[in-house]
Design brief:
Strand 10 and strand 11 form a beta hairpin. This protein folds into two domains: 1-39; 91-325, 3-Layer(aba) Sandwich (Rossmann fold). A five-stranded parallel sheet has the order 6-5-7-8-9, sandwiched between helices. The protein has a two-stranded antiparallel ribbon with strand order 1-2. It is elongated and about 90 Å long. The chain has 13 helices and eleven strands. The protein has 328 residues and is α/β, with parallel strands linked by helices.
Amino acid sequence: MNDALKTTTKVALAAVMVIISTAIAVALAEGILRLKNASMKNYDIEMWRYALELKKRSDIQILGHEHIPSRSAILQSVEIRINDRGLRGGAIEKLEPGKRRVVFLGSSVTLGWGVPENETVTSRIGQMFRAEGKDVEVLNAGIGNYNAVRYSELFRRRLADLNPTDIVIHYFVRDAEVLEAGGGNWLLRNSQLAVTCWVALSRYFGSGKETKLEDYYRKVYEPQAEGFVAMRNALSELANYARQRHIRVYLAMTPDVHDLVDYKLGFVHDQMQEIAARLSLSYVDLLPSMKNLTPKELWSMPGDPHPNSLGHQRMAEAIFPILRGGEN
Protein backbone atom coordinates (compact mmCIF):
# COMPACT_ATOMS: atom_id res chain seq x y z
CA MET A 1 0.00 0.00 0.00
CA ASN A 2 1.56 3.33 -1.04
CA ASP A 3 1.82 6.34 1.26
CA ALA A 4 -1.04 8.25 -0.43
CA LEU A 5 -3.44 5.35 0.00
CA LYS A 6 -2.40 4.92 3.63
CA THR A 7 -3.03 8.60 4.29
CA THR A 8 -6.45 8.46 2.61
CA THR A 9 -7.39 5.39 4.66
CA LYS A 10 -6.35 7.06 7.91
CA VAL A 11 -8.33 10.18 7.10
CA ALA A 12 -11.41 8.11 6.20
CA LEU A 13 -11.15 6.08 9.41
CA ALA A 14 -10.74 9.26 11.44
CA ALA A 15 -13.82 10.78 9.78
CA VAL A 16 -15.84 7.63 10.50
CA MET A 17 -14.73 7.70 14.15
CA VAL A 18 -15.72 11.38 14.42
CA ILE A 19 -19.14 10.64 12.92
CA ILE A 20 -19.70 7.65 15.21
CA SER A 21 -18.52 9.56 18.30
CA THR A 22 -20.72 12.52 17.43
CA ALA A 23 -23.74 10.28 16.88
CA ILE A 24 -23.17 8.58 20.24
CA ALA A 25 -22.73 11.92 22.00
CA VAL A 26 -25.90 13.30 20.42
CA ALA A 27 -27.86 10.17 21.31
CA LEU A 28 -26.60 10.34 24.92
CA ALA A 29 -27.47 14.05 25.15
CA GLU A 30 -30.94 13.38 23.74
CA GLY A 31 -31.48 10.56 26.24
CA ILE A 32 -30.27 12.61 29.19
CA LEU A 33 -32.51 15.52 28.19
CA ARG A 34 -35.56 13.29 27.83
CA LEU A 35 -34.85 11.77 31.25
CA LYS A 36 -34.41 15.21 32.80
CA ASN A 37 -37.54 16.61 31.14
CA ALA A 38 -39.66 13.69 32.29
CA SER A 39 -40.42 15.87 35.34
CA MET A 40 -42.56 18.04 33.00
CA LYS A 41 -41.03 21.22 34.45
CA ASN A 42 -39.52 22.52 31.21
CA TYR A 43 -42.06 24.88 29.65
CA ASP A 44 -40.48 24.88 26.17
CA ILE A 45 -40.32 21.09 26.01
CA GLU A 46 -43.88 20.68 27.28
CA MET A 47 -45.11 23.05 24.58
CA TRP A 48 -43.10 21.03 22.06
CA ARG A 49 -44.78 17.85 23.33
CA TYR A 50 -48.18 19.53 23.06
CA ALA A 51 -47.54 20.26 19.37
CA LEU A 52 -46.25 16.73 18.83
CA GLU A 53 -48.95 14.80 20.69
CA LEU A 54 -52.13 16.86 20.35
CA LYS A 55 -51.75 18.95 17.19
CA LYS A 56 -51.82 18.18 13.48
CA ARG A 57 -51.24 20.29 10.40
CA SER A 58 -54.56 21.72 9.19
CA ASP A 59 -55.77 21.34 5.63
CA ILE A 60 -57.06 24.90 6.01
CA GLN A 61 -53.93 26.96 5.42
CA ILE A 62 -54.98 29.96 7.49
CA LEU A 63 -55.37 27.79 10.60
CA GLY A 64 -51.87 26.34 10.43
CA HIS A 65 -52.73 23.53 12.83
CA GLU A 66 -55.65 22.00 14.71
CA HIS A 67 -56.13 19.60 17.59
CA ILE A 68 -56.06 15.89 16.84
CA PRO A 69 -59.60 14.68 17.63
CA SER A 70 -60.17 12.10 20.36
CA ARG A 71 -56.65 12.32 21.77
CA SER A 72 -55.31 13.05 25.25
CA ALA A 73 -51.90 13.64 26.82
CA ILE A 74 -50.36 14.48 30.17
CA LEU A 75 -48.61 17.81 29.66
CA GLN A 76 -46.99 19.86 32.41
CA SER A 77 -48.40 17.24 34.82
CA VAL A 78 -51.99 17.97 33.72
CA GLU A 79 -54.19 15.84 31.50
CA ILE A 80 -55.46 17.58 28.39
CA ARG A 81 -58.13 15.52 26.67
CA ILE A 82 -59.43 16.48 23.26
CA ASN A 83 -62.88 15.31 22.15
CA ASP A 84 -63.99 14.26 18.69
CA ARG A 85 -64.60 17.89 17.69
CA GLY A 86 -61.11 19.04 18.67
CA LEU A 87 -62.28 20.83 21.83
CA ARG A 88 -60.87 20.34 25.30
CA GLY A 89 -63.18 18.21 27.42
CA GLY A 90 -65.59 15.32 27.07
CA ALA A 91 -67.98 14.36 24.30
CA ILE A 92 -70.51 16.95 23.17
CA GLU A 93 -74.12 15.88 23.44
CA LYS A 94 -76.81 16.76 20.91
CA LEU A 95 -78.15 20.23 21.58
CA GLU A 96 -81.68 19.99 22.90
CA PRO A 97 -84.21 22.63 21.74
CA GLY A 98 -84.15 25.66 24.00
CA LYS A 99 -80.87 24.72 25.70
CA ARG A 100 -78.16 27.34 26.00
CA ARG A 101 -74.70 26.54 24.59
CA VAL A 102 -71.72 28.84 25.08
CA VAL A 103 -68.55 28.40 22.99
CA PHE A 104 -65.28 29.99 24.14
CA LEU A 105 -62.83 30.85 21.35
CA GLY A 106 -59.21 31.59 22.12
CA SER A 107 -55.64 30.42 22.47
CA SER A 108 -53.71 28.39 25.05
CA VAL A 109 -54.96 30.74 27.79
CA THR A 110 -58.52 29.64 26.97
CA LEU A 111 -57.45 26.02 26.61
CA GLY A 112 -56.16 26.23 30.18
CA TRP A 113 -52.50 25.36 29.70
CA GLY A 114 -51.20 23.87 32.95
CA VAL A 115 -54.66 23.94 34.55
CA PRO A 116 -56.76 20.83 35.34
CA GLU A 117 -59.84 20.56 33.13
CA ASN A 118 -62.36 21.11 35.95
CA GLU A 119 -60.55 24.31 37.00
CA THR A 120 -60.46 26.06 33.63
CA VAL A 121 -62.49 29.21 33.01
CA THR A 122 -65.02 27.29 30.91
CA SER A 123 -65.53 24.50 33.45
CA ARG A 124 -65.86 26.99 36.30
CA ILE A 125 -68.51 28.99 34.46
CA GLY A 126 -70.43 25.79 33.75
CA GLN A 127 -70.25 24.98 37.46
CA MET A 128 -71.52 28.47 38.33
CA PHE A 129 -74.56 28.04 36.10
CA ARG A 130 -75.30 24.63 37.60
CA ALA A 131 -75.01 26.08 41.10
CA GLU A 132 -77.92 28.35 40.14
CA GLY A 133 -79.90 25.41 38.81
CA LYS A 134 -79.35 26.30 35.14
CA ASP A 135 -78.40 23.74 32.51
CA VAL A 136 -75.95 25.71 30.36
CA GLU A 137 -73.30 23.94 28.30
CA VAL A 138 -69.95 25.75 28.13
CA LEU A 139 -67.47 24.50 25.52
CA ASN A 140 -63.73 25.16 25.34
CA ALA A 141 -62.45 25.68 21.77
CA GLY A 142 -59.10 27.16 22.82
CA ILE A 143 -56.05 26.02 20.84
CA GLY A 144 -52.44 26.90 21.60
CA ASN A 145 -50.69 29.31 19.22
CA TYR A 146 -53.94 30.71 17.84
CA ASN A 147 -54.81 34.35 17.26
CA ALA A 148 -58.06 36.12 16.43
CA VAL A 149 -57.78 35.30 12.72
CA ARG A 150 -57.32 31.61 13.43
CA TYR A 151 -60.03 31.07 16.02
CA SER A 152 -62.56 33.13 14.09
CA GLU A 153 -61.88 31.01 11.02
CA LEU A 154 -61.93 27.83 13.10
CA PHE A 155 -65.41 28.62 14.31
CA ARG A 156 -66.87 29.43 10.92
CA ARG A 157 -65.20 26.50 9.14
CA ARG A 158 -65.29 23.78 11.80
CA LEU A 159 -67.61 24.63 14.69
CA ALA A 160 -70.57 26.58 13.31
CA ASP A 161 -72.70 23.44 13.28
CA LEU A 162 -72.51 23.36 17.09
CA ASN A 163 -75.16 26.11 16.86
CA PRO A 164 -74.15 28.01 20.00
CA THR A 165 -76.47 30.55 21.55
CA ASP A 166 -73.43 32.49 22.77
CA ILE A 167 -69.82 32.99 21.69
CA VAL A 168 -67.18 34.31 24.06
CA ILE A 169 -64.14 35.72 22.28
CA HIS A 170 -61.59 35.11 25.03
CA TYR A 171 -59.25 37.71 23.61
CA PHE A 172 -55.59 37.82 24.67
CA VAL A 173 -53.22 40.72 23.99
CA ARG A 174 -51.21 38.57 21.56
CA ASP A 175 -54.23 37.86 19.36
CA ALA A 176 -53.34 40.64 16.91
CA GLU A 177 -49.93 39.15 16.14
CA VAL A 178 -49.13 37.66 12.75
CA LEU A 179 -48.49 33.92 13.11
CA GLU A 180 -46.48 31.72 10.80
CA ALA A 181 -47.66 28.20 9.99
CA GLY A 182 -44.49 26.49 11.32
CA GLY A 183 -44.09 22.74 11.83
CA GLY A 184 -41.92 22.13 8.76
CA ASN A 185 -38.62 21.22 10.44
CA TRP A 186 -38.30 17.45 10.96
CA LEU A 187 -35.45 17.78 13.45
CA LEU A 188 -37.30 20.26 15.65
CA ARG A 189 -40.39 18.07 15.56
CA ASN A 190 -38.52 14.98 16.75
CA SER A 191 -35.59 16.00 18.96
CA GLN A 192 -35.64 17.59 22.40
CA LEU A 193 -31.94 18.37 21.98
CA ALA A 194 -32.65 20.28 18.77
CA VAL A 195 -35.47 22.20 20.45
CA THR A 196 -33.30 23.02 23.47
CA CYS A 197 -30.46 24.28 21.26
CA TRP A 198 -32.86 26.28 19.07
CA VAL A 199 -34.46 27.98 22.08
CA ALA A 200 -31.07 28.74 23.65
CA LEU A 201 -29.66 30.20 20.43
CA SER A 202 -32.80 32.22 19.77
CA ARG A 203 -32.66 33.75 23.24
CA TYR A 204 -28.91 34.38 23.06
CA PHE A 205 -28.94 36.14 19.70
CA GLY A 206 -32.12 38.00 20.57
CA SER A 207 -30.97 39.10 24.03
CA GLY A 208 -29.19 42.20 22.78
CA LYS A 209 -32.13 43.52 20.81
CA GLU A 210 -35.14 42.77 22.98
CA THR A 211 -37.96 45.25 22.78
CA LYS A 212 -39.82 46.39 25.84
CA LEU A 213 -43.19 44.72 26.06
CA GLU A 214 -45.00 48.05 25.82
CA ASP A 215 -43.03 49.16 22.75
CA TYR A 216 -43.58 45.81 21.06
CA TYR A 217 -47.35 45.90 21.52
CA ARG A 218 -47.59 49.52 20.44
CA LYS A 219 -46.21 48.37 17.09
CA VAL A 220 -48.56 45.38 16.97
CA TYR A 221 -51.57 47.63 17.64
CA GLU A 222 -50.72 50.41 15.20
CA PRO A 223 -53.90 51.01 13.14
CA GLN A 224 -52.23 49.96 9.88
CA ALA A 225 -50.20 47.04 11.27
CA GLU A 226 -50.81 43.84 9.30
CA GLY A 227 -51.86 41.74 12.29
CA PHE A 228 -54.07 44.45 13.74
CA VAL A 229 -55.96 44.93 10.47
CA ALA A 230 -56.37 41.16 10.05
CA MET A 231 -57.61 40.80 13.64
CA ARG A 232 -60.14 43.60 13.26
CA ASN A 233 -61.45 42.16 10.00
CA ALA A 234 -61.70 38.65 11.46
CA LEU A 235 -63.69 39.83 14.47
CA SER A 236 -65.93 41.88 12.21
CA GLU A 237 -66.70 38.84 10.03
CA LEU A 238 -67.40 36.73 13.11
CA ALA A 239 -69.67 39.42 14.58
CA ASN A 240 -71.61 39.73 11.32
CA TYR A 241 -71.99 35.95 11.09
CA ALA A 242 -73.30 35.78 14.64
CA ARG A 243 -75.63 38.76 14.22
CA GLN A 244 -77.32 37.15 11.22
CA ARG A 245 -77.98 34.05 13.30
CA HIS A 246 -78.97 35.84 16.52
CA ILE A 247 -75.96 34.53 18.43
CA ARG A 248 -74.89 36.65 21.40
CA VAL A 249 -71.17 37.56 21.26
CA TYR A 250 -68.96 38.77 24.09
CA LEU A 251 -65.36 39.97 24.06
CA ALA A 252 -63.47 39.16 27.26
CA MET A 253 -60.23 41.16 27.21
CA THR A 254 -57.46 39.13 28.87
CA PRO A 255 -54.30 40.95 30.01
CA ASP A 256 -50.71 39.90 29.56
CA VAL A 257 -49.70 38.51 32.96
CA HIS A 258 -45.99 39.35 32.99
CA ASP A 259 -46.51 42.38 35.21
CA LEU A 260 -49.97 43.13 36.58
CA VAL A 261 -48.69 45.38 39.36
CA ASP A 262 -47.27 48.03 37.02
CA TYR A 263 -49.36 47.22 33.96
CA LYS A 264 -48.32 49.05 30.80
CA LEU A 265 -50.73 47.67 28.21
CA GLY A 266 -53.92 49.51 29.10
CA PHE A 267 -53.89 51.11 25.64
CA VAL A 268 -54.54 47.65 24.13
CA HIS A 269 -57.60 47.24 26.34
CA ASP A 270 -58.85 50.68 25.30
CA GLN A 271 -58.51 49.81 21.62
CA MET A 272 -60.28 46.48 22.04
CA GLN A 273 -63.12 48.13 23.97
CA GLU A 274 -63.57 50.53 21.05
CA ILE A 275 -63.60 47.65 18.56
CA ALA A 276 -66.13 45.76 20.69
CA ALA A 277 -68.39 48.81 20.83
CA ARG A 278 -68.12 49.31 17.07
CA LEU A 279 -69.09 45.69 16.49
CA SER A 280 -71.85 45.75 19.13
CA LEU A 281 -70.12 43.08 21.24
CA SER A 282 -70.66 42.89 24.99
CA TYR A 283 -67.29 43.77 26.54
CA VAL A 284 -65.69 42.71 29.80
CA ASP A 285 -62.17 43.64 30.87
CA LEU A 286 -60.47 40.90 32.90
CA LEU A 287 -57.59 43.09 34.10
CA PRO A 288 -59.33 44.30 37.29
CA SER A 289 -59.98 40.69 38.32
CA MET A 290 -56.24 39.91 38.28
CA LYS A 291 -54.73 43.32 38.99
CA ASN A 292 -51.75 43.29 41.39
CA LEU A 293 -51.31 39.51 41.35
CA THR A 294 -47.61 38.61 41.08
CA PRO A 295 -46.14 35.97 38.74
CA LYS A 296 -45.57 33.71 41.75
CA GLU A 297 -49.29 33.88 42.54
CA LEU A 298 -50.61 33.70 38.99
CA TRP A 299 -48.23 31.88 36.65
CA SER A 300 -48.85 28.22 35.82
CA MET A 301 -45.27 27.47 36.89
CA PRO A 302 -41.96 29.40 37.01
CA GLY A 303 -41.08 30.46 33.47
CA ASP A 304 -44.61 29.83 32.18
CA PRO A 305 -46.68 33.04 31.86
CA HIS A 306 -50.05 31.29 31.55
CA PRO A 307 -52.72 31.98 34.20
CA ASN A 308 -52.94 29.16 36.74
CA SER A 309 -56.06 27.86 38.46
CA LEU A 310 -56.39 31.07 40.48
CA GLY A 311 -56.21 33.10 37.27
CA HIS A 312 -58.94 30.99 35.69
CA GLN A 313 -61.09 31.38 38.78
CA ARG A 314 -60.73 35.17 38.64
CA MET A 315 -61.53 35.22 34.93
CA ALA A 316 -64.61 33.05 35.42
CA GLU A 317 -65.86 35.29 38.23
CA ALA A 318 -65.52 38.33 35.94
CA ILE A 319 -67.12 36.74 32.86
CA PHE A 320 -70.00 34.90 34.54
CA PRO A 321 -72.11 37.95 35.45
CA ILE A 322 -72.14 39.24 31.87
CA LEU A 323 -73.06 35.79 30.54
CA ARG A 324 -75.81 35.42 33.11
CA GLY A 325 -77.11 38.84 32.13
CA GLY A 326 -77.12 37.80 28.47
CA GLU A 327 -80.05 35.48 29.13
CA ASN A 328 -82.40 38.40 29.48
